[in-house]
Amino acid sequence: MNAASPPGRVAPLYLALGFAQAAHSIEEMSMGLYDFFWTATGLFHQYVPAIQQFRMSGVTFAVLNMTFIAVILGVSPFVFQGRRWALYLAGLAGIIETLNGVGHLAGVVVFDGYVPGALTAPFLLVLGVLLLRELVRTGALRD
Questions:
Q1: Best CA proximity match to 67, nearest among 78, 59, 79
Q2: Of all residues in the chain, what percent carry a pLDDT higher than 90?
Q3: Integer Cα distance of 43 and 39 in angstroms
Q4: CB 62 within 8 A of CB 26
Q5: Is the sign of the CA dihedral 88, 82, 100, 133 positive or negative?
Q6: Cα dihedral 18, 87, 98, 37 sign
Q7: pLDDT at residue 85 tops 90
Q8: Over the chain, what is the mean pLDDT?
Q9: Which of 28, 26, 23, 7 is nearest to 90 (CA)?
Q10: Which one of 26, 46, 47, 68 is most buried, by most CB atoms within 10 A?
Q11: Is the predicted pLDDT of residue 1 greater than 60, yes or no?
Q12: CA distance between the termini of the chain
C-alpha cells in the first residue's frame, strides 16, 4: 500500500479528525485550558506525588496545539495516497485523539462540571474510534 488509495473511509475519517482537533484546540484556547493545567495536575499530584503540578503559558499551549494540527493536516494528503507511514501516523493520531476525548470527558466527571475542551471531546472520541476501527477493518496496516 505504498501509493494506492487507502481502503474504506480511512482518509476522510482522518481528515475529519484533524478538523475536529482544530475545533477542539479553539475551544481549549478560548476557555483557557492552559490555566486549568495547574488545577488538573494538582489533583493528579495529590494522589500520585511523582506527577508534578505545573503551569503552561497560553503561548506554549498554542504552539503545541498548532504544531499538532499542522502535522495532522499536513499528513492528510499522504493518508489519501495510502502511504504506509502516513497510515501508521493516522493510527497513532486515532489513539491519541481517542485518549484525548476520554481524558476531557473524565475531567467532567472528576471535576463535576465543564472542563475546557469537553464540548468538542466527544467528536475526538467518536472519530478516533471510527478511524481505528476502519484501519483494523480494512487491514490498512497489514503487510
A1: 59
A2: 89
A3: 6
A4: no
A5: negative
A6: negative
A7: yes
A8: 94
A9: 7
A10: 68
A11: no
A12: 8
What would the grid cell of residue 51 be? 506527577
Q: Rounded distance, CA 92 to CA 128, Å? A: 10
The grid cell for 96 is 491519541
pTM over 0.85: yes
CA distance 115 to 106: 10
Which class for 117: exposed (0-12), middle (13-18), buried (19 or more C-beta within 10 A)?
buried
CB of 93 closer than 8 Å to CB of 17: yes
How much is the average pLDDT of 15-33?
97
Q: Report the 10 Å Cβ neighbour count for 113.
A: 9
Please name the amino acid found at residue 124. Answer: L
Could you give the CA distance from residue 129 to residue 38 in angstroms, rounded to a whole number? 29
Domain spans in the chain, listed from the N-terminal domain onward: 10-30+57-138
Three cell numbers, residue 123: 467528536
